[in-house]
Amino acid sequence: MTLILRARFFPPLRCGTDGEDPVMSPEKITVRMTVNGKAYVRDVEPRYLLADFLRHELYLTGTHIGCEHGVCGACTVLINGKTGRSCLQFAVALDGAEITTVEGIAGDGPLHPVQEAFHQAHALQCGYCTPGFLLTTIEFLGQNPDPDRDEIRQALTNNMCRCTGYLNIIDAVEDAAGRLRAKGGEA
Amino acid sequence: MREIEDFTLIGKTVLRREDSYLLRGKAQFLDDLPEPKNLIHIAFVTSPYARADILSIDAAAALALPGVIGVLTGKDLVDDIKTFAPVIELDGYREVRRPVVAVDRVNFVGETVAIILAETPYVAQDALDLVEVDYDPLPSVAEINEALKPEAPVLHQHLGDNLIFKSGFETDAFDARFAEGDVVLEEEFRTGRVTGAMIEPRGCMAWPDPIATNITLWTPTQIPHIVRTAIADHLDIPESVLRVVTPAVGGGFGTKAHVYPDELIVVALARRYGRAVKWVQDRREDLLTNAHARDHILKLKVAVKNDGTICAAYLDVKTNCGAYPNHPYSPTLEATAAVRMMPGPYKIRNYKYDVCSVTTNTAPTGAYRGTGQPSAFLAIEGMMDRIGRRLGIDPAEVRRRNTVRPEDFPYVNVIGVRYDTGSYLPSLERGLEIIGYDAFRKAQPADRMVDGKYRGIGICNYTEVSGTGAPGWRVRGFAKMPGFDSSRVVVEPDGKITVYVSQADAGQGHYTTFAQLAADRLGARWEDVTVIEGDTSKTPYGTGTFASRGSVVGGGTVIRCSEKVGAKVRHIAGYMLNRDPDRFILRDSRVHDRDDPDTSLSLREIAETAYSMNNLGMPQGEEHGLEATDYYDPPMVTMANGTHVVQVAIDPEDGRVQIERYAVVHDCGRVINPKIVEGQVHGATAQGIGEALMEEIVYDTRCRISKRPASTQSAASRARPRVG
Amino acid sequence: MKPAAFKYFRPDTLEEVLSLLAEHGAEARILAGGQSLVPLMNMRILSPAVLIDINRCRDLAYLREEGGMVACGALTRQGEAETSALVADRLPLLAAAMPHVGVRANRNFGTVCGSLAHADPLGELPSVATALEARFVIASARGRREVDAEEFFVSALTNCLEPDEMLAEVRLPVAAAGGKSVFLEIANRAHGFAVAGLAALVEFDAGGRCSRARLSAMGAGDTTARLRTVEALLEGGTLDDAVIREAGAAATKAAEPSDDVHASAAYRAHVTGSLVRKALRQMLGNGEQGR
C-alpha cells in the first residue's frame, strides 16, 4: 500500500479526492467527553478535529492552532493525562476521554505554580504558544519533578515558540519544578 | 525632549499584566473572537503554477456542494477593489499594480485565483478541491540573476524587464579615493529567503454593523491605521465608516506589518453581502503567501590601507521583490535599508552603491526582523574578517580601527544620517570581554582544531535604525508613511487613567510598559493606568508597531502626552489649593506640595473639578476635561547599536555547528522594563540564529516552494543561545 | 487544512477490523495513533473514504517476550515502548532510538507498528526494525503471513501490505549477550525529521571478534537500507581503528541517498560514513551493552 506523496515535502499542489464527493457520509456521531472536569455531549462529523471541537463546539479557545499538522505544539492538550496534539486527533475517536485544556489548569482561581513561574520568568511574549507549553510542562514535571536544564530542553522540544528564544521558558520550568516540589512538601 | 531624572517606574522590571489572561487561555486572538451569526467563511483557491494564463474557471461542482454560498473569481471583484499598489515616490522605482485576485495571469504559486464562500471552514476546504481552473503554464523565473537575463520571462510587460527598482549613490571623487587603498578585497554574500512564521498565522474578519453603514475589520496587524487608509483607498469608501481593530496578535516580526489583499477582500465581501466574512489562514498559506524576506545578493568591494582601515567601499545589492511589490513598503524597503545601513558603526567616508530589486515568480517579499540591515551587516562584518585574514590583523582589531569613536559624536555618516550618540567601541570591548576573546585567541591553534572540533569566534557589530520619523521615511520614498505615532491620555472622572496609543502590540508588552511610562510621568499608580491600542476608532492616527519604533515613538508620545496632562493636573491643583502649580509634585496618584507634605490632593479630587463634579469651576482659561493628545514625529531616525560575539564548534565529521557561547551587548538607550527588553533580545537572537543556520524557503526550478512546513522555521533547541 | 470527510468505524476486535478491511480495502486506512496519518489527511495529501479506528482493540496493545523475540502489538504506543522495562532490557537498540521518534506528544499516541507501516526511509523505527531483522506479522481476513523487513519496506512510504491487510504485530529479536547497539541521528533540530541516521548492532564472540553486524541507515536510500558491505567487512574481524575507518568509507559508498531541501545526497552519503565510524567507536569505548 502506498501513500501518494512523500510526506516530508511541502505539497505544492492541493490533491483532489479522486472525483468522490468529499462530503459523503457526514453523519454526525455523538461524542461524550469530560473537559476540564465538565461533561459534554455533542454530535459532530467524524472528521472534526479535537482542536476545532474544543474551540468551536465548547468555546474553549485557549487551545490555539498553529500548524495543523502536529509540528508546532500550540494545540497541545492533556488527553487522559498525556500531552497530545489536538490537531491530530478526531473528536469522535476520543469518546469518553478526559481532556485538560489551558482553561482547566487553574480555572478562575490563583495561577497554578507552572503558570506563576511562566509569569515571573517572563516566559511568554505574544502568548499564542503558551497554552501548549504549560501543558507540556505539567506533564513533564509530573514525570520528572527535579529535572536538570538539559532534560528541560529536551522536554520543551514538544513545543515551538517564535518570540522568546526559549531561555526564559527553560528558567520558568526550572522554577516551576521548585514551586511544585515545595507545594508537594507542604501537602 | 528634556532629560528625565526623576524616574519612579521607568527602568524597573514590572511583571506583565497581559500574562494574566494569556496564561489562562483567555486572550482573544482572531480565531478566538465570538463569531457573529450568519458568518461567511471564505477560503482561497490558489495557483499551483508559478506563472500561467488562466484560461477558465469552472466552479459548478463547488457551487453544487451543500454549504457553499458562492465562488468568486478575479473578474467578479474588479469593480469592488482597485488594483493594489503601494505609494512610493522614489527615483528608479516603477509602479506595479496587482489585482487582489488574479484575473488573467498568475505570477506565483499561492496567488489567489478564486474565493470560496461557505457556511463552515470545513465545507470551504471541500469546495477548494472542486473548483476546476484551466491554466496554460508559462516559463517562470525565481532567482535574481536569472530574472535579470535578457531572455528571462518578463513578469510585468509594461516594465519591459524585471527591474522594478534601481538606484545608486556615490561620494565625491569616489574612484580616486578608492585607488588610494593598499589592498582591494571583494566578496559576494547571499542571504536566504525567510519569513516570520509567527505561531499564529494571519486571518481577518469583517463585520458590518447591522444598523449603521459602518464596518469593523478585525485583523492581527501591526499597522491598523495604515490598513484602514489602504482599504478606504482601494475600496473607495470613506475612511470614517471603517474601523480596524487588532485582537490579541500571536507574533508579528514585520510579517504582520503589511496590508494584504485578503484584508481588502473581506471588507469588500462584507459590504457586498451585508454579512460578516471571515478568513483564517492556515500554515500552508502562511508559508506560500505571507511576506517573505531577504533573498539578497550583496557584492562588497573595499579598498583598504595596510593598517586595516577602509578607504572606500563599493556595495552592489540585488534584492528579490517577488511577484508584486508588498504594501505599503514595496521592495525598496529592504533594498534601501541594506545600502543605507551598510556603513553601520564604521567610519566609511567614501562610499558608492548600486541597488536594484527584481520581480520574480515568487511570493512578494517585505518587512521582517531588521529589513535590509542583517544582510548589510553580513556583508560588512564578513569583509572585516577577510581584511584581517589578508593583512594578518586580528579581526576584532580590524573592527576597532574602523569604528566611529566616542569623541566623534555627534557623527554624520557618509549618507547623511546623524548618530547623536552610540557605544560602538565600548559595546565591542564588552562583548569580547564576556566571551573571553583574548584568552581564546591566544589558546587557539593555527588549524582551529580543539578537542576534535573546529572552534572559532564570530563578531558582529551593528547599528540599528529605530523610531524612524516622517523625514526618515520620506528620504526613502515612502510618500504615505506617516512616521509619527500618537497618544491620548485621559484622567477619567474617578482619577484612573486611560492611555490610548496609535500602536498595535504583538507580544511586546505595551500594555505593561506604556502604563509604566504614563504612571511614571503622571505620578500615578501603575495599577491605575489602562492602555488601549490597536483600534482605529479609539486611538488617534499613527504609524504602528514595526521597525523597532514601538518604544521610541509610541513610548515617546506617551511620555509627552502624560506630561501635558500632568501640567493641567498641576494647574487645576494650584487653582484648588490657591498655590503656585510649580510647587506640586505628582506621586501615588496624588498631587503633593513639595514644601508642605501635609497638603495634597488626589487625582480623583482634581478630576472631579475638571469634570465639573463639584462647585469649584475651572481656573480661568482652562477647559473642562482632563486629557491631552500628542503627536510625536521623531527626527529622521534613532540609532541603537550593539555587538554579538559567538563561539561555535564545527564537527569536522558532519559539519554541524554548535553554538557554545553567545554574548549579546545591546545598547538600546534608556530601558523601560529590563525583563521585557531581555526577552526581546533573546527572541531576536534566536530568530537570527535560525536565519543564519537553519531557516530557508527554497524555490525549485519550477518556482514551487520545496520546504517542510513550520518545522524548519524555528531555532532549534540544539542551537541554544545563552545570552549574557 | 481540514481533513476531507470519511466514514468512521470503531471495531472492538481484530476480527472486526479485518472484516472491515476486507470490505473497504484500498478505500480504508487504519487509525491507530494518527500521528503520521492525520497530518497527511489535514493537508489532504491523503483522503481515505473510510477510517477504521483500532483504538478500542485493547488486545492489540502488548509487549511480550516469546521465543527469543519481543512481540509488539498494533496498538502498542511508542511511549509505552520507550518506558518499557522489557524493551530497555531486551531491545537496547529500540530503547536508544525511541527518544528520537517525534516528540513526547507524538509518542504518547503514535504506535510502533503505525510508524513501521508508514515506511518512511527517514523514520527511526523502520531503521531499527531492519537492523534487528524484525519479523512483520501481517493479518487479513484471508489469514496471516509473516515477512522480514526487507520485504516489508518496498520503497519510500510504501510497504508490502495488500489493501485488505494490516500490520498486526512486529516481532523484534532480543539482543544477544555481549552485543552492542548504538542509535545515532542527525537532524536539523532536536526533534523533527532526520537528515540521516543509523541503527547499529554488533555482536562479539568470546575472542572479541565481531560475530554478527547489522547496520541500517536512515536516509541512505529509497527505503531504510542495510549496509551489507559494511556488515561483511566487520564480521569475523576485530574492531580497530583501521577497520572502523574502512567501514565508514564503505558506508559512504554503499549509501544511495537523495537530495532534498535539507541536505544533498553527497552530504547524506558522507555523514552515513561518519555515523558508522561514530557508532563503532562508541561500541569500543563503551564496555557495557546498551545505549
How would you characterize the overall build of this protein?
The complex is a heterotrimer of chains A (187), B (724) and C (291). Chain A is of the alpha+beta class. Chain A folds into two domains: 29-105, Ubiquitin-like (UB roll) (Roll); 110-186, [2Fe-2S]-binding domain (DNA polymerase, domain 1, Orthogonal Bundle). Chain A is built from six helices and five strands; from the N terminus they run E-E-H-E-E-E-H-H-H-H-H. In chain A, helix 5 (149-156) crosses helix 6 (167-186). Chain A is globular, with a radius of gyration of 18 Å. Chain A starts with 28 loop residues before the first strand and ends with a helix. Chain B has 724 residues and is α+β, with helices and mostly antiparallel strands. Among the domains of chain B are: 19-26 and 484-632, Aldehyde oxidase/xanthine dehydrogenase, molybdopterin binding domain (Aldehyde Oxidoreductase, domain 4); 34-138 and 221-280, Alpha-Beta Complex (Aldehyde Oxidoreductase, domain 3). Helix content of chain B is 27%, strand content 26%. Chain B is built from 19 helices and 28 strands. In chain B, a hairpin with a 5-residue loop joins strand 13 (292-304) and strand 14 (310-322). The radius of gyration of chain B is 27 Å and the shape is globular. With 291 residues, chain C is of the alpha+beta class. Chain C has three domains: 7-53, Uridine Diphospho-n-acetylenolpyruvylglucosamine Reductase, domain 2, CATH 3.30.43; 58-173, Uridine Diphospho-n-acetylenolpyruvylglucosamine Reductase, domain 3, CATH 3.30.465.10; 180-285, Enolase-like, domain 1 (2-Layer Sandwich). In chain C, 35% of the residues lie in helices and 26% in strands. Chain C has twelve helices and 14 strands. Chain C has helices at 14-24, 37-42, 78-83, 85-90, 92-97, 104-107, 112-118, 124-132, 149-152, 228-234, 241-254, 265-285; strands at residues 7-9, 28-31, 50-53, 63-66, 69-73, 135-140, 143-148, 153-155, 158-159, 166-173, 180-187, 194-204, 210-218, 225-226. In chain C, strand 6 and strand 7 form a beta hairpin. The chains are: A alpha+beta (187), B alpha+beta (724), C alpha+beta (291).
